[in-house]
Amino acid sequence: MYFMTERIYEYQKNILEKILEDKYDLKTSLIWSKPPSSDLGDISFPLFNVAKQLSIPPSELAIAIQESFSEPKYINKVEIQGGFLNLYLNKQSFSLDTLLKILSDAKYGQSTIKSSERIIVEHTSSNPTGPLHIGHFRNSILGDVIGRLFRFMGAAVNFRYYVNDLGRQIAPLIIGYHLLKEKGIEPNIKVDLWIGKIYATMNTFLEIQQLKEHLNSIGIKGTSKDNLYSLSLEETSKCKEVLKDHKLRGTEKEQIFESIDKLFRVQNSLEERIPDVYLELRKLTSKQITDLNQLTMEYVIEYQKGKDKELVSKFRKVTQEALAGHVETLNLFNIFHDDFDWESDVAWSGEVETILVKLEKNKFLIHDGKARLLDNDKIGTNLGFKEKYNLKYEMPSSIIVNSEGITLYPCRDIAYHLHKLEKFNASYCYNVVGKEQQFPQLTVKLALYGLGEPDIADKIEHFDFETVNLVGRKMAGREFEYVTPDEVYDLVKDEVNILLEERDYSEEEAKNISEKVATSSIKYFILRMDPKKLVVFDVKKAVNLNENTGPFLQYSYARALNIIKKAKENSLEIQEILSNAEQMNFDIEKEEEWELIKMMEELPYILVKAAESLRPDSVANFTYSLVAAFHKFYDSCPVLKANPDTLRDSRLLIVYCFLKCLESLFEVIGIDYLEKM
RNA sequence: GGACCAGUAGUUCAGUGGAUAGAAUGGCUGCCUGCGGAGCAGUUGGUCGUCGGUUCGAAUCCGAUCUGGUCCGCCA
After folding, report:
1. What ipTM was estimated for this complex?
2. Which nucleotides in chain B have some atom under 7 angstroms from a protein Cβ?
3. Domains, chain A, ranges and CATH?
4. What pLDDT is stored for residue A241 in this prediction?
5. What is the mean pLDDT of residues A121-132?
6. Cα–Cα distance measured from residue A265 to residue A271, given in angstroms and rounded to the nearest whole number
7. Residue range A259-284: average pLDDT?
8. In contact, A616 and A120? CB cutoff 8 Å
9. Average pLDDT of A87-101?
10. Which residue among A165, A168, A277, A592 is least packed, with the fewest CB closer than 10 Å?
């Protein structure tokens, strides 16, 4: 069999190259392509380039090659069209070999090309300040499928989640959470959603306080102290009135106007949408917390030190709960992490201080008062980083310690990455993180260079992707404004259940179907888009079950499987038919049949290409094309009613192989197959 | 001001140097409920943001430009 070792396309290419060498003494590398339609053959070689090298007209060269070409087993016909040499495959042997290969593989398309690699995929790593929303979820899906893809290529894959429990944004949440807890108010919804409400509320209080203090500091005293955490209408209009005549610079003044309006709007919106949490917390906070801003700072600093046991357990409890909510959502969608790394653990390890000392010693820190900046351009230029990564511009430096001497999150990130690969003895590490973090991600690598660890840095890659917006608006955790996978899941499930009512399924079956359809629907909707393109999430479209959707793929599987089932009901011995495969005749006449087989042959190479180019979406799109080819086959090539029996058997084999293809693809894109729908 | 990304049928998206740029959906026209459904066939629709360049050949590579998004010293 030719492609036990190499693909027929490559094989033919080598033959042609040999001819060129023998005949013209020319060593060259040809490229092959697929002709636009089957009428023009199955493999095509443009000869323009070679013709030019030899100074022979392309058509003349094609004729010369055609004369020397003989390959009766796999090629039926060789034709010349302009400067193209077109080969027509022998359908009989190509089909048979392809199908036998699919049959004999445990998992068709599985490979060992990455079997020497140990790969970390860090993904999701969402702030524990609320539930996962569809935007985070794009991250989860992409990370998960990249990992699955590498695993299918033979790599050992380790999925990690970095828990960002140290940010300043956490503190107000902790404060609010415990205010409610002391009052005996417990979550009445999924806990991460509950946390999301508290976070949005407390953060708004904090921002209002900061705004008021800022206004005070520039001499605008139109705000009252007794309602430090809320804005009244009179208050805002009075402030804006005074501000108009204030001698601030235009842009600064505009910014203040904007933030007054925004906070006023957010406050009212929260009050209206989540009155339970919002009103209760406003009461509690204004009564018990005299200075939220101050308390937030104290909490952050203390937690970073990690010495105050009581405070540590307060922080850990809340973040743990939020994280549990994330994990619950992820697991619902069949996404699992192997390890969780806590940012606070990194901070407490003392590694950050060591790193700062070392960077200082290596003279890569810029001083600005107490603040420290990483001299990215100096590192990039002096240590060959810019050259290696082909960066030609001057790189701005990045702040890693603020003017109060407090280390910022990039410090922890650098420390984390210094030892991250060791945790799994990894040969490579993908960080699946939104594209807005390109610069910080670059900073980490530069810092590792600056620390004399370029080998580690070179093994880290930022897999970035675009954001997900909602129709007409962005998602905003701080405003409790988002769509969660959980709620879309419920919507799709309801939709499916309505459809299933008309059918005769047991409760258990119906549950299984609606759950698997719901997850595939959402996952596929996001996965199939190019990661670099902005997704506008439209719930109505994600709920759609036809067209290019996850459920449509599942439906195709069930449809194909049904043929096999029916065959068994007609007392056909499938195993026996399959074991006779080698004797089968594939004198294919139907175009639809041929296209399907050719596409199945392509599957392993699609996967390799997807892994190499880091395009998980291409696997999804290929799956859809394959399924579309199957439906065309289904419509034009009767299987069970095919006559004679030998034709029926060969088509049964095709259907069986198609199922195996889908099983492999589903494993990679992480959707479940269903036996019936 | 600098950097990165995107711009393709009315719409949602494929297509990372090859032939007449594909699919789905929408619109229009037929057929039909025949292994499993609102299915099938046909038809309509694009100066691939714009302008240059490289090439036998460009949606694809290079340069400029427009539009949108994101980032660029104290959030993560």
Report:
1. 0.92
2. 2-7, 12-20, 22-25, 35-41, 56-57, 69-76
3. 2-89 (3.30.1360.70), 91-109+524-677 (1.10.730.10), 118-165+339-469 (3.40.50.620), 170-332 (no CATH)
4. 80
5. 95
6. 10
7. 92
8. no
9. 91
10. A168
